[in-house]
TrEMBL record:
The lineage of its organism: Bacteria, Pseudomonadati, Pseudomonadota, Alphaproteobacteria, Hyphomicrobiales. Residues 100-200 form the DSBA-like thioredoxin domain. It comes from Xanthobacter flavus. This is Protein-disulfide isomerase. One of its GO terms (molecular function) is oxidoreductase activity. The keyword Oxidoreductase does not apply.
Length: 212
């Protein structure tokens, strides 16, 4: 990485840039697991900005996943999503950024939301390319993936640090709390809320039931 790129990336590794980060992490502590979505949570989910919808674009998402890139099972869940979408051309799958593990999670979520805002058609490729990396994920790693996918990582960096991105992350925290989600990945599948990783077989069962 050149000197200019390092200079641009450096703020994403510093807590000072993410003044809202500590508040986001603290607010993310949510109540216990709930297995049915409430009307209030449904309203928040439907109004949630910054949702990435993959798969069928003209269909209301049947699955919404709450994501933290540093959650232990996020990568498994990302590749499960790929399998689900490959097997059902009518399925729409939404992704909501709800980072809570650490500051690196918030940094990477900012980058992801910037990619979505700037190049929505490229988001799916970015998302799976990030899942194909190893180790902890932070803003620098996410920007490296942005660059490897042929996107302008300078522009993404600038967009990632705009106030509207913080607003989206704050609303993601509120959604997680309304869903009573403690662990991510977490899923809303139809009317069901699943907190914590659900394997591919279970997700297929839930999707089939919700689609009836």
């Amino acid at each position: 990485m050149g000197a200019r790129a390092e200079q641009l990336c450096r703020p994403l590794t510093r807590r000072g840039l993410l003044a809202a980060g500590a508040g986001l992490l603290a607010a993310a502590a949510s109540p216990a697991f709930a297995d049915a979505i409430t009307p209030e949570a449904r309203k928040l989910l439907e109004a949630m900005p910054g949702k990435a919808v993959l798969g069928a674009q003209k269909t209301k998402p049947l699955v919404t996943e709450l994501v933290d890139f540093n959650a232990p099972d996020w990568r498994r869940s990302a590749f499960d999503m790929r399998e689900l979408l490959a097997g059902d051309a009518k399925l729409a799958y939404a992704i909501v950024q709800t980072p809570r593990v650490d500051v690196g999670s918030i940094e990477a979520a900012r980058v992801a939301l910037a990619v979505l805002a700037m190049q929505p058609a490229k988001f799916g490729d970015f998302y799976l390319a990030l899942a194909a990396t190893s180790g902890d994920i932070d803003g620098v790693k996410a920007l490296n993936v942005v660059r490897s996918e042929g996107l302008d990582h300078y522009k993404v960096f600038r967009a990632a640090n705009q106030p509207d991105i913080t607003d989206i992350l704050t609303q993601g925290v509120a959604l997680a709390a309304a869903l009573r989600v403690l662990d991510t990945p977490a899923y809303v599948i139809g009317a069901d809320v699943v907190s914590g990783y659900a394997d591919l077989a279970r997700k297929r069962t839930l999707v089939a039931a919700a689609a009836r």
